[in-house]
Each structure stands twice: as structure tokens, then as C-alpha cells.
Amino acid sequence: METKKGYCNCLETIKPVRDTLDVINGKWKLPIIISITVGNERFTDIQNSIPGITPKVLAKELKELEEHKLIKRIIIEGYPVKISYQADAYADTLTPIIYALKDWGLNHRKKIMQVDV
After folding, report:
1. What is the pLDDT of residue 5?
2. Residue 1 lies in a domain
3. Is the peptide bond before 80 cis (omega within 30 degrees of 0)?
4. How many CB atoms sit inside 10 A of residue 90's CB?
């Protein structure tokens, strides 16, 4: 019976973690969110702030982030039409996760750079 309980507890964690990763997983989604939250609103500004991202990939990722209600695409009428991107208030819920990942990454880098004597 103990095994069954542990199995259930494990799934209670795995399922929501999997759901989270399905939304923010990949090489580009968190960097895009970070770029937008620090003030890059135009497509080219976002692209220029993230080394290595292509326009095609950026467009695809922006669309997916918009579908998940993490960013807003704003169309400014005029000639020419301007498009900007802003983080939705819901994206703020990722802030503690982003900082936790940053801290873990810094600590991990230190750990793997240590030479055991």
C-alpha cells in the first residue's frame, strides 16, 4: 500500500509540473518573456535582445505566448501599422519562477566549475 500512496503523491506533482513545462518549455519562451518584461515591446527590439533567435521562431513563440495569455499583441493603427507586445499581468506569476531558475543556474554553474581536490 505504501508504494501506491507514493505513486499518487508523485503524480500530484508530476502532472502540474508537466503542464507548466508545456507552456514555458523550450529555448526561447522564458527569454522572450524576460525581454518583454524589461521593456522591449517591438518585434525587432525583442529579437535583438535575444542572441540567436530567428524572426520565424520569434513569431511562432510570440503567438504561443499570446495564446497562453502571457503576453498581449497590441496593434496601433496608423500608417504604417505598428505592433507592440506587452506582458500580461498573468506573466507576473512567472517572476518567482524566473528568479528561482536564475539562482539555481548561478549556483549550478559554481558547483560544476569547482574542482574537487
Report:
1. 60
2. no
3. yes
4. 12
